[in-house]
């Protein structure tokens, strides 16, 4: 199952040139770029692991690409995403996040029906082994 | 998925046909090299070897560009540099301009300069150095990394020194990401010599070793004029003669630091001028406020001691 989270996830995987161009855009907006990885890509999991510190004061995408390549080599079995954080007052949030690397075998999920109070039916996503 | 892979009709751009010949003179005119070199000649006094090397680099980049347009084999030239010279010969000044120069020549993408010393690269504990060095390198990508007093990176007296770790990371990036950044090392000639002989990897990865010569007396006088002009001062005739004596005397003192000594002398002369005007009292005009006279130069310690 193809994981669709963040920007561009319904498109074919971005090439390195395209990733680099997106980072260039983020840096041009003055956003701080960071890299995060996870082995638990459940949509409710907002706590991805940081790959090093967020990269402030960068002028060029080459620095991020260097880290991204290092992360891919070290953690080929994990999802890797790129975040761009806008520190402008009023925003102070991640403005752009997209998946930059997927494991060879993607995570699979199943939909569970859950009984709630008063026979209300709820649904939950459950990770199933690949 | 084949539909996505196919380019949309009408959007494919055929590669421009390779040209058979190019006019280098035209390319030179279209580039910014001419005005750039003129500007350097105007702003930097002396430093002939440096200007000559910048001229060579400019020509080389132009030829590389021409080769690419004619479809000849090209690889990115390495432009890592080492600046060596005595104190005050303009190493830092030139390095600061080098980022702008390389950017205008189209060699680096951004043209910013990240200036660091040992403290910014080397950590205090085990495992602290590599992230610190890498962070600096990432910030410098697309521009120029200037390492001032680079020989401090290597401390032979302490074999556990973390400087060696920083050197290894630097060398690796200098080799693998030549088109992402340019590294400039600067330092005094003799100590850089020791540094390079202890780290042969550095010497071989640096294509341009530029030696900054000492300024002669006439150049130092022109530098004094330039400094004064920038600050809105001028020397009168007597002061200029006194300055010539000053330069000759200053040169023989052990702590002579070329242009930096002149800069300091100018700052002190400015102080003396202020106290002279202050003690004289009365009305002053713009001319009096911006003129430095012989008295201010002559009262220097350097001149009073030998005569």
Explain this structure.
The complex is a heterodimer of chains A (130) and B (307). Chain A is α+β, with helices and mostly antiparallel strands and 130 residues long. Chain A has one domain (16-128): Ribulose 1,5 Bisphosphate Carboxylase/Oxygenase (2-Layer Sandwich), CATH 3.30.190. In chain A, 20% of the residues lie in helices and 32% in strands. Chain A contains 2 helices and 6 strands; from the N terminus they run H-E-E-H-E-E-E-E. Chain A has helices spanning 16-28, 62-74; strands at 32-38, 49-50, 79-86, 93-101, 108-115, 121-128. Chain A has a 4-stranded antiparallel β-sheet. In chain A, strand 5 (108-115) and strand 6 form a beta hairpin. Chain A is globular and about 55 Å long. The mean pLDDT of chain A is 94. By secondary structure, chain B is α/β, with parallel strands linked by helices. Chain B folds into 2 domains: 20-212, Rossmann fold (3-Layer(aba) Sandwich), CATH 3.40.50; 217-305, Helicase, Ruva Protein, domain 3 (Orthogonal Bundle), CATH 1.10.8. Chain B is 56% helix and 9% strand. Chain B is built from 16 helices and 7 strands. Chain B has a 5-stranded parallel β-sheet with strand order 2-3-4-1-5, sandwiched between helices. In chain B, strands 6-7 form a two-stranded parallel sheet. Residues 1-12 of chain B have low confidence and may be disordered. Chain A binds chain B through residues 12, 52-53, 55, 57-64, 66-67, and chain B through 1, 4, 109-110, 112, 131, 135, 137-139, 141-143, 177, 180-181.
């Amino acid at each position: 199952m193809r994981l669709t989270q963040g920007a561009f996830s319904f498109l074919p995987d971005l090439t390195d040139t395209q990733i680099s161009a997106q980072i260039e855009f983020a840096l041009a907006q003055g956003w701080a770029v960071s890299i995060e990885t996870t082995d638990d890509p459940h949509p409710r999991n907002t706590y991805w692991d940081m790959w090093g510190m967020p990269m402030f004061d960068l002028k060029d995408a080459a620095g991020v690409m260097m880290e991204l390549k290092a992360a891919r080599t070290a953690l080929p079995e994990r999802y890797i995403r790129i975040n761009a954080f806008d520190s402008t007052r009023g925003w102070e949030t991640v403005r752009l996040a997209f998946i930059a690397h997927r494991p060879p075998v993607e995570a699979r999920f199943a939909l569970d029906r859950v009984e709630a109070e008063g026979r209300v039916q709820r649904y939950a996503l459950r990770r199933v082994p690949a | 998925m084949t539909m996505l892979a196919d380019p949309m009709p009408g959007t494919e751009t055929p590669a421009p046909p390779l040209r058979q010949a190019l006019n280098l003179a035209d390319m030179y005119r279209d580039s910014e090299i001419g005005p750039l070199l003129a500007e350097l000649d105007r702003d930097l006094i002396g430093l002939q070897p440096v200007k000559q090397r910048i001229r060579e680099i400019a020509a080389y980049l132009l030829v590389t560009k021409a080769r690419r347009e004619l479809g000849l084999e090209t690889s990115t030239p390495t432009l890592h540099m080492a600046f060596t010279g005595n104190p005050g010969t303009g190493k830092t000044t030139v390095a600061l301009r080098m980022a702008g120069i390389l950017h205008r020549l189209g060699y680096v993408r951004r043209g910013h300069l990240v200036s660091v010393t040992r403290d910014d690269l080397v950590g205090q504990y085990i495992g602290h150095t590599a992230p610190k060095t890498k962070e600096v390198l990432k910030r410098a990508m697309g521009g120029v990394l200037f390492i001032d007093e680079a020989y401090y990176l290597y401390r032979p007296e302490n074999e556990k020194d973390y400087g060696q770790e920083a050197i290894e990371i630097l060398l690796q990036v200098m080799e693998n990401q030549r088109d992402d950044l340019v590294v400039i090392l600067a330092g005094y000639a003799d100590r850089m010599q020791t540094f390079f002989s202890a780290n042969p990897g550095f010497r071989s990865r640096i294509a341009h070793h530029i030696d900054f010569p000492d300024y002669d007396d006439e150049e130092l006088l022109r530098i004094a004029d330039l400094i004064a002009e920038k600050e809105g001062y001028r020397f009168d005739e007597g002061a200029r003669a006194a300055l010539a004596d000053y330069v000759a005397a200053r040169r023989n003192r052990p702590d002579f630091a070329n242009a930096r000594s002149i800069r300091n002398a100018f700052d002190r002369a400015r102080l003396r001028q202020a106290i002279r005007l202050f003690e004289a009292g009365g009305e002053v005009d713009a001319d009096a406020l911006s003129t430095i006279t012989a008295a201010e130069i002559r009262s220097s310690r350097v001149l009073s001691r030998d005569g």
